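Thread: Large ribosomal subunit protein bL28, structure

OP (GT): Posting the sequence first so everyone is looking at the same thing. Length is 63 residues per the record. Can we get the structure tokens written out before standup tomorrow? I want them in the notebook alongside the other entries.
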Amino acid sequence: MSKICEICGKGPSFGNNVSHANNKTSRIWYPNLQKIKAVKNGTVRSIKVCTRCIRSGHVTKAL
């Protein structure tokens, strides 16, 4: 299961946790993906979409 938005292509970001002692450990930030039923290419499909795309209206939810 990929953690990528099917509309905008947003995926995981990589970086470091930094402690007060300046110790660094790598970590991953995942996008806030939601599984919704949406109309894509004229058919209703269940797709993974980030909340930014849902809020901005890039995807139309199926009723």
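GT: Both are above now. Quick notes for whoever picks this up: The chain has a mean pLDDT of 94. The helical segments are 51-56.
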